[in-house]
Amino acid sequence: LFSTTIKENINYGLEREVSLDEIILAAKAAAIHDSIMAFPDGYDTMVGEKGVSLSGGQKQRITIARTILKDPAILILDDSTSAVDAATEERIKAALQKLMVGRTNFIIAHRIQTLKMADRILVMDQGKIVQEGTHQELVEIDGFYKQVFILQTSIEEDLQQELAVAALKE
Questions:
Q1: What pLDDT does 73 receive?
Q2: What DSSP state is assigned to residue 170?
Q3: Were both Cys, which of 90, 116, 126, 145 would link to 138 (CB 3.0–4.6 Å)?
Q4: Pairwise CA distance, residues 11 & 14, whole Å
Q5: Rounded to 5, what percent of the chain is helix, strand, coil?
Q6: Which residue segments constitute the domains of the chain, with CATH numbers given?
Q7: CA–CA separation, 135 and 117 (whole Å)
Q8: pLDDT tens, 7-66?
Q9: Using CA atoms, how far apart are residues 46 and 137, in angstroms rounded to an integer?
Q10: Is residue 96 within 8 Å of residue 72, measured between CB atoms?
Q11: Which pLDDT score, from 0 to 100, does residue 38 have?
Q12: H helices within 72-122, ranges in order?
């Protein structure tokens, strides 16, 4: 992000005039609006050296809002939700699903949950494509994708069990 206002960071690089209402809609779609409104100056809050410090997840969501405003023909998302919690990731994915319709999308991700709805998944290991297919096809055959899927699913289930036990103790 740049050392300027949140509004200007979301609006950065656009070749057309954008209203504050459009910026707010994009921020809501990227699940960052409420965080922005928590700052005293809202969208006019300065970020960077002379302003507030944002978390990694907040920075990601501001760049996602910028992307939503740009409405690109080709969308490249490189681990775009890696720094957000699961609930926020779901809200962002819902917004991105709408944005992805009718355009070419490249999604680079380490979380398999992010890739489940893809038409085609290319699995890379050591810089080489080692598998390709849909999520369903890839979990049905032995390989790197299935191993990662099982591992990630197991970790998520263990975490859910720990959270449930902790909630019962309270």
A1: 86
A2: -
A3: 145
A4: 6
A5: 50, 15, 35
A6: 1-108 (3.40.50.300), 111-170 (no CATH)
A7: 7
A8: 999 999 888 899 999 999 999 988 899 999 999 999 999 998 888 999 888 888 898 899
A9: 47
A10: no
A11: 96
A12: 86-100
CA–CA separation, 78 and 80 (whole Å): 5
Q: Which two tokens stand for residue 129?
A: 């494509």
Residue type, 148: V
Cα-only R_g, the chain: 19
CA 116/CA 90 separation, integer angstroms: 13
66 touches 26 (CB < 8 A): yes
Report helix, strand or coil for 115.
coil
- Listed residue (82, 104, 102, 103) closest to 93, CA to CA: 82
Q: Helices in 13-76 by DSSP H: which ranges?
A: 20-29, 33-37, 56-70
Paired with 132 in beta bridges are: 122
> Taking the chain, what is the end-to-end CA distance rounded to the nearest angstrom?
40
Residues 6+ apart with CB under 8 A from 150: none
> Which residues, other chains included, contact 74 with Cβ-Cβ below 8 Å and sequence gap of 6+?
103, 104, 105, 106
Closest CA to 54 of 11, 95, 1: 1
